[in-house]
Design goal:
Layout lengths: L10 E4 L11 E4 L15 E3 L1 H10 L1 H7 L7 E15 L6 E15 L10 E3 L13 H29 L1
Parallel strand pairs: 3-6
Antiparallel strand pairs: 1-2, 4-5
Amino acid sequence: MFVNPEFSPPIEAMGSPAVAGQDAAIEWQWDPKGTETMCPFWAVQRMTRKQVQAAASADMTYLERVGVRRRFNCELRPHVMTCINIGMTILGQGPVNMTRTLGVPFLVNTIDLEDGEHLFLEIQEAARKPEITRGWKHAHHQSEADNKKAKVRKDKDDAKDKGSH
């Protein structure tokens, strides 16, 4: 795997804002001749269900331009590929044969696309972390307070024991 050193993104064009009152988003226009060297995978918009619904209701120009509402139309499907290398060592000490299997995610369409339709890949909403009501600081302060109370009780018990003898 390597990064393509001749990185050439698609032409940028100003699109319409997804939400009223926001700046217009930059949309990439892919050249039919394929002059860009950037993989189209990076142009796929990744959105949650809530984001698609909010964008679809706020941006009617996409519906007018493409003819369909924003929808999830692609997914990543894992494929296993086998790579077999057969060769000899430089010093002629025997064959160098290797077989490797690679799990590679492929981006595939799940439905037929309309002309001009953008690719939308569904992502899961980030799980919210539960609100911590008791952290380590609180636990430390609580244990110090408990230790002080235990010491006071022990001192009182010791004083009672000395007084009763």
